[in-house]
Amino acid sequence: MAINFGDNFNIAGPLPIDERYYNGLVPYTGTSEVLSSISVGERYLGLTVLVQSGSTYIEYWFKDDINTLVEKKYASEQVVGDFITGATNLGYFSGTTGVQVVQALTSSGAYNGNYFSIYNYYYRDNAGVIRIGKAAYEEPFRRAYVATILTLEKSWVWDVSSQGWRFIDGDVRDLVGQTATLGVDYGPVYYTVDEWSAGFYNSGSTASITVSGDLTTGNTITIANPIYSNKSDQELHLRTIINDTPNFLRITNDDYYIRFSGATSALIGQNVGAGTFDIFTGKTGCTMYFRTLTPSGDTSISQRADGSLVIFSSSDGSANALTGATNLSGGTGEIIEGITDRNLQVRTLVGTGDVTITTTGDTVIIDSQAGGTYNLDSPAVCTVGGISAGTVLTGKTSFELWEELLVPTQNPTLTPPSVSTTLSVSGTFEVGCTISSLDVCSSFNAGCINPQYTATCDKRSCGVIGYCFESTGGQCDGYYVDGVTLHVETIPTYTISAGTQTWCTSACHCAGVQPYDSKGGTFGSPLSTGFTTVSQVSLTGIYPWFWGTSVSAPTINQTLLNNYTCNCLASSTGTITVDNFNITTEYFWFAIPASGPTKTVWQGLNNPSNNGTIPDSLMATPQVISVNSPDGCGWTCNYEFYVSNYATSINYGMQFCN
Fold first, then answer.
1. Distance from C-alpha of 116 to C-alpha of 212, rounded to nearest angstrom
2. 419 DSSP assignment
3. Theoretical Cys-Cys bridge with 634: which of 80, 260, 429, 432, CB 3.0 to 4.6 Å?
C-alpha cells in the first residue's frame, strides 16, 4: 500500500533517493553486477540504474522485462513521429572461407551427422519462416549449418520461438521466405551460444554437440554489395550507385525508381543466303569473329566509297587464271579428270567394302578396318578370354573382337575405410582388480582402390577427420577431432566389473577420389564424407573359484577362503577340474560362486569307477555364505562351499560336475 507524504524529501548527502540506482555508494561496474546485486523480487519495469564504463556513465533500465537491461537513450533534440535509428543491408555477407563442422548425436538418431557451416546469416522467425540477417535489433548475426550427406537434407539454425538452436528439415538456403518444419525436439534445454567454438557440448538435453574448425580462418569472402553505409544522428547514409561503363550501361532515376538500361548486345551472328563458305565463324564473350576475305588467282577485292566490297575476276584469262593440272606419280586411278573453262574436274573418292574415307580439316583419311565387321553366327556360345557366353559378336570389327577377347575392361576393387579397435591388455580378469593406464586405441585404414588405374589416389578415402568412442562404462566416450591414423584415449585407472566390458570406436572419414576402370571410364562414384562401421573390443570380468586342503575338519568361513591353495580364474558354471589334490590323510574343499549351477557328481580321474554323488559319504551338503575377495579385489559375493566329510588321501585329479 502506498505511503502518502505532504512534502518533498530532502536528501542530506550526494546520493540518489532509490538506493538501487547505485551499488552502495558508487555506480555499478557492469550490467552483470546489476543483475547479481538486485534480486528478481526487487525489480520492476522502469527501474533505472547507473553503470560506469571507463570515464563514461550510462543509464540502463528494465524496459521490456525484469531480466533484460537496455541502455537508456536520450535524444539531443525533440523528434516528432517515427524516425530511423539504423539500417541493415539485407542479404549482404562479409566473412572468411573457414569451414566449421558441427557433429550432432541425438537419442533418436535421425538427425545424427556432420553439419557444415554455410554463408549467409540465417534464422527461423516466430512464424517459422526462414530469414536472412539477424533475429532482432542488437542481437548477433548467426551462421547456419547444413548436413547434405544424410538421407534427407537437414539444417541446424537459430530459432526465435525456442530462443535456441534447433534442427529443421531441408537445406536452409532453399527455404528463405518459406515456412520451415522443426526437426526432432531435443529439449527442454536448448543450446543458446551465439557463436560456436571448437569443443564438446552437452546441455543436459538429448543431443550432444561436437564442434571442429572455426569461422575466422581462410580467405575473405563477400556476398553482394552494401547500399547502406552508416548513420550519424538522425541521418542515414547510403552509397551512391556510379556507372563506370556509361557507353554500355545507362543509369537514370525518377521519383520512384533507379533505372538501369543498356544497348541490346549481339547475342549471335548468322550466315544468311546460300553459299559455300560462311563469313561468320562464331562468338566468344562479347566478340564476334568473321573470316577475312583474301583474293587469289585472278580474283580481286576492292572497297567502294560507301564501304561495300566488290569481288570480281579477270575476264580475259589473265591474273593467274587456272591453265592446267597434272596427275603426279603413277597409279591405276587418276584424281584429275580435266579442266572445263576455269573449273578443275576432280574425281570423287568412294570407299567400298571395309574401306572408309573421311575428312579432317584439309586431310582426307582413307582407312581400312582389316577383315571388315563380323557377320557370322552370334552370340558367343562359350566363354573365351574376356568374351563371355551370350556376348553379341555381329557388327564388330576384328580389332574390337580381339580387344574384348584379350583386353576386357577390368574394374577395380573398392575397399571402404575402416577402423580397428584394440586395448593395451586383453583376456579375462578377476572382478574388482584394477588396470593402470588402460589404452583404448582406434587405428584408421583409408581403404583402397585396387588396382588404382588412372585414379589420382589409390585410397578410397582421402583421410580421417575425427574419432567416436563409446564404452560400457563411458570412461572415454565422445567425439575427438584428429587427423592422424591412430587415436589413443587413456583411462588412468580402470576397475574390472562382472561380465563383458566393451569399447567401440568409429571414424569420420574424408571424401575420396573418382575411381576409374582399366579403359579410363568412371567406375562407381567418389566416396562421400561419412562414418566407418563400428569396431569393438572387450574384456571379461569373472568371479574365480577356489580349492584347498586342511589337516583338520574345515570350518566354512572367510578364514578358510583366505587360506586357499589355488585361485582358479575360470568359469565354474560347467565341469571344474582339480589336477591333483596331492594330500595324505587331509580334508579337501572347493568353493564356487553361488549364482552358478550346483555340483551334484564327483569323479576321480584315476579310475572311471571312482565316482559318487554330492552329497554322499565322501562329500558333505554344500553350504552358501557371503565372503569377500581374499586377494583385496574389493568384491563381496555369495559362494557355495563343498567340503569332504573325512580326511582322505588323494594323489590324482578330480572333476566335479553339475
1. 10
2. E
3. 432
pTM over 0.90: no
CA distance 560 to 589: 9
SS3 (DSSP) at 129: strand
Omega of the bond leading into 188 within 30 degrees of 0 (cis) = yes
- Rounded to whole angstroms, the Cα distance separating 613 from 642 reads 12
* Residue that is written with C-alpha cell 574401306 in the block: 355
Q: What is the mean pLDDT of residues 298-326?
A: 68
Average pLDDT for the chain: 88
pLDDT in tens, 345-402: 778 888 776 677 888 877 878 776 555 688 888 898 898 888 888 899 898 887 888 8
Nearest to 85 by CA among 189, 192, 276, 234: 234
Residue count of the chain: 658
Q: How far is Cα 506 from Cα 530, in angstroms, rounded to an integer?
A: 10
Report how far residue 428's alpha carbon sits from residue 425's, in angstroms, rounded to the nearest whole number: 10
Please tell me whether residue 404 adopts helix, strand or coil conformation: helix
Question: CA–CA separation, 238 vs 231, rounded Å?
Answer: 9
Q: Where are the alpha helices (DSSP H) in 318-386?
A: none
Residue 108 CB contacts under 8 Å (≥ 6 apart), including other chains: 184, 206
Work out the end-to-end distance of the chain between its first and last CA atoms, rounded to an integer number of angstroms: 85
What integer pLDDT is reported at residue 151 of this predicted model? 62
Reduced to 3 states (helix: H, G, I; strand: E, B; else coil), residue 588 is strand
What pLDDT was estimated at residue 114?
Answer: 92
Looking only at the bridges linking them, the beta strands covering 535-542 and 428-430 are parallel
Nearest to 190 by CA among 175, 207, 178, 177: 207
C-alpha to C-alpha distance for 595 and 543, rounded to whole angstroms: 10
pLDDT greater than 80 at residue 237: no
Domain ranges of the chain: 19-71, 93-223, 371-408, 414-542, 545-657
The SS3 assignment for 325 reads coil
**DSSP conformational letter for 179:** B
**Distance of alpha carbon 9 from alpha carbon 263, whole angstroms:** 78
Whether the Cβ atoms of residue 90 and residue 133 lie closer than 8 Å to each other = yes
DSSP assigned state of 442: E
Q: What is the mean pLDDT of residues 210-225?
A: 89
Query: HEC states along 49-90?
Result: EEEEECCEEEEEECCCCCCCCEECCCCCCCCCCCCCCCCCCC
Place of cell 584408421: 444
DSSP helix, strand, coil percent of the chain (3-state; round to 5): 5, 40, 55
Domain 414-542 fold: Immunoglobulin-like (2.60.40)
Lowest mean pLDDT segment, chosen from 219-223, 438-442, 543-547? 219-223
Convert the pLDDT of each residue in 62-98 to its tens digit: 999 999 999 998 865 555 555 566 677 777 888 899 9
| Sequence-separated (6 or more) residues with CB below 8 Å from residue 140 | 134, 194, 195
Residue type at 638 in one-letter notation: N
pLDDT at 192 over 70: yes
pLDDT value at residue 640? 98
As beta bridge partners, residue 419 has 444
Cell numbers 589404452 correspond to 439
**CB–CB of 538/421 below 8 Å?**
no
Least confident segment among 141-155, 174-188, 604-618: 141-155
Q: What angle do CA 151, 135, 37 make, to 5 degrees?
A: 120
So what's the pLDDT on residue 639?
Answer: 98
Q: What is the pLDDT, as a whole number, of residue 324?
A: 65
In this structure, how many other beta carbons lie within 10 angstroms of the beta carbon of residue 645? 14
